[in-house]
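Below: protein 1.
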Amino acid sequence: QVQLVESGGGLVQPGGSLRLSCAASGFIFSNYWMNWVRQAPGKGLEWVSAISSGGSTHYADSVKGRFTISRDNAKNTLYLQIDTLKPEDTAVYYCANELLQYWGQGTQVTVSS
């Protein structure tokens, strides 16, 4: 069955960086777009970024220039590099498959001094 497992979250000071990972299994990872979605405390889900099977990348305006999505198809792993973190980036970050049918358990990112 499809499994998505995120890791890499943590507590970071404003201006810091993190790299989130999402290990995928149970489907042919390289064939599909993948997404990152986040949910801030008390707020709804916010789509953050997507990457196509061919590697083209797409970002929400709120994260452009600070977030970088990438994938390693040999390792069946999706990444999200987050730079210049801001307190408003505090959220649970989820990876999800192409049609948002399958989600990981999420990884918490907290940005605070």
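Below: protein 2.
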Amino acid sequence: QVDVVESGGGLVQPGGSLRLSCEASRSISAINARGWYRQAPGKQRELVATITGDGSITYADSVKGRFTISRDNAKNTVYLQMNSLKPEDTAVYYCIVWGDIDYWGQGTQVTVAS
């Protein structure tokens, strides 16, 4: 059983957009806080955005105004809409579901290049 599954990564040109999805299994509460991390080659993992069960949101300064995190509790899914993408956004993006046990997705590659 895979607890958390990400999708939506890919190759996009600078200035383009992608939407990542993170679906959690039914065994995981839909109201747990969720987040997106990313890790670029040779760099530390960076927290990109978070959203709590009641909808409180935070963003890293590097993505403010360009990325939007949202959630659909009925689908037990969190999204990351990424606009105005830059080459420095290139990374593997990971979803996390926080709780008594933290659940990590397998990661999805986002590559921003001409």
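The chain has a mean pLDDT of 95.
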